[in-house]
Specification:
mainly alpha, globular, 0% strand
Length: 250
Amino acid sequence: MIDPLQPETLALIAAVFLLGGLVKGVVGLGLPAVALGLLTVFLGLKDAIVLIVFPSLATNLWQALAGGALLAIGRRLWTLLAFACVGIWFGTGLLAQSDGRLLAGLLGLLLSIYAVTALASPQIRVPQAWEPWLSPPIGAITGFFTGLTGSFTFPGIAYVQALGFPRDRLIQAMGIVFLTSTITLGLGLADNGLLTRDLGIASLAAMIPAFLGLFAGLRLRRRIPEVYFRRILLGALLVLGVYIGINALA
């Protein structure tokens, strides 16, 4: 097992979260996906999941509170969030007992599916009348995958994006979903003995480069077209997902 507090490991972690924060600042999401993918390649999936907890928690708290629609969004998404929490709890329990390489392969598959579907840009819209019966299973499935891989990408992000929120509310809604998921994920990891002292310290330290990247990304958002940056991100996630999947099966 790699010592997460070694200077070279801390430097790697800082670089990864600086990049992840930059991506999140530009497009409003992507920090967990970018950090998970890269850290899984270098440190393994289980350590990578633990390391994303505090940076993801802090940046998503900021994103969830940045806007005036917290209560309105919460009322609309509460069933999705509740069932996601249940799914995450079961998923982290299974994570503690499972082969990390196989789960890394699952992460690679989920990142690839998310990237391909997002690049295809399907014009999917979920009617609001469907949400009461569609949100619980989507939340439970996504939560279970989150508990196993640390990634909320599939099918959760696509579902929230299909709910028809205006752009500003969509960014806040994703922050609320990610924040709730990260809190539950952290509790599940701690309950299953995966959140060790050294990994916790490294994760706390990673908050600094994550926020530096986030604020740099917010400034960069004004200078480059978001659509182009988003396509580059999705293409990179697709390549990374395929690489992780092949490496896990090798």
